[in-house]
Each structure stands twice: as C-alpha cells, then as structure tokens.
Amino acid sequence: MVSLVPNPIYPLKKCDLVLAKNQGDLQRIMHQLTMDILHGRFELAHRAGWWFDSSPLDGKGDDDPDIEWMDATKRHDQRLRNMDRYRLRTPTKNPNGPTVFKLISTEGNEHSPNGATSCSFAMTLELTLEDDERYREGGLHYVGCATGGYFVQMMLNYRSYGTILPFTPNCHCGTTTIPPKWAALAAKWDSIIRRALADEYDIQCMFADVPLKCHTAGRGCPFKHDIPAKKK
Ligand SMILES: [Zn+2]
Ligand SMILES: [Zn+2]
C-alpha cells in the first residue's frame, strides 16, 4: 500500500482567480455526476439500432416517453445484454450530453462459461486509464465524466462482484491466473472507489496532477492533492 502525503506545492504561491472559479464550477458538476454513478443513482435504456446507425432515441431528451429506463445498476441484472448499447440517465445532467456506451464490462457466456471475467474490459481500461496522465494519479472525476461509459461499467462490475475487473480462470483466452497488470489496475481503482464511497471528499482533485495545477487548493478546494510519500 502506497502512503500518501499532501503535495507541498500547494497552495500555489501565484493563484489565478478566474481559473480558480472555473475549476471549482467544473469540478462541482463532475463530482455530482461521479457521485450519482458511484452510488448507483442511474438508469439505463437500450439504445435501439445498430451501432453504426443513429438510434431513434438520439436527439431525444431524457424525459421523452419513448425511452424506457431500467433501474439496472448491477452487471448481473438479467435485463442487461452483453455487447448491446445503452444510454445513461443520472439525476445530475451531464453538460457534455448523454453518455452512450457498449456493454463490455464482462465477457459473454461463450467466452467464460465458468463465471464472470472481464478480459476485453481490462484491456480497454488498461489503455484508457494508464496512458492518459489525467487518470494516473487517480482522477476519479475524469473517469466519472469524460469516460462515463467506462465508469458506469466499472461500477456495474463493482456492485455485482466487488471489483471492477472480475476474473475467472480458463476462459476462452486460456488464462489461468489474472495478469499482474490487470490485478494492479483493479486493486488501484477498487481502492479509489472504496475510499470515495466511504467519504465523498476522499478523492484526488482532478486538477491536482495536471500541468495547469489546482488554483483553489488550500483556498477552498475540498478534494485531495496528494502525492506518494517518499520511501525512507
Ligand atoms: Zn478471456
Ligand atoms: Zn483542488
């Protein structure tokens, strides 16, 4: 377990007040959206039509009577079908418009007849979360909003299996033990989720580790600005 300490660069000596206000406003919305998904306050609707087509639901508002919402917040909900497309509705409106995603959080039965496993999802998350610096230090708010489709699926898995990446050996890939990279990825994000579920402010600030830096740290930003402690 890595121990964390507050980053000594904060509070910044020079603070941009306009930037600080914009950061605060943006992070507040992203936090609410993230909390909605984290706590299962969301509904899903089948997005009809082929993936390459537009759907009859596209362009319709969340409250349109043509959209049938389901309170499916766990992956093992029988109404959810692998590889189908879904639209997400949360009480907090996403300023970027509705989130639509393809359900890949676990493999189908033909791939893993012995139990839930998440080979493709693990590979996808590995690429998304490890290669983008915003996610490296635990930018849960980025995951919650910028890649809401992945975060919903991480939570569907977490709420069903207690981990974002369930693994059952001897799936179609023939893997007998969970690859160490996936185990590390799952451990890291399971812990970030566990902390955020216990305390909504125990989340790394989304600006703490980006080049722009957080301009409200020490001046009202309620989130964490931590770095790993140096080994003694
Ligand atoms: Zn597999
Ligand atoms: Zn901050």
Give a verbal description of the structure.
The chain is mainly alpha-helical. The protein has one domain (17-53, 65-226). 34% of the residues lie in helices and 8% in strands. It is built from six helices and five strands, in the order βαβββαααααβ. It has helices at 17-38, 119-131, 133-136, 140-145, 148-161, 180-198, and strands spanning 4-6, 43-46, 85-89, 100-102, 226-228. Strands 2-3-4 form a three-stranded antiparallel β-sheet, covered by helices on one side. Strands 1-5 form a two-stranded antiparallel sheet. The model has no long low-confidence stretch (mean pLDDT 89). Residues 205, 207-208, 214, 216-217, 221, 223, 225 line the site of one zinc ion.
What order do the helices and strands come in, and which of them pair?
Elements: E1 4-6, H1 17-38, E2 43-46, E3 85-89, E4 100-102, H2 119-131, H3 133-136, H4 140-145, H5 148-161, H6 180-198, E5 226-228
Antiparallel strand pairs: 1-5, 2-3, 3-4
The structure holds zinc ion (ZN) (2 copies).
Residues 107, 111, 117, 119, 171-173, 175 line the site of one zinc ion.
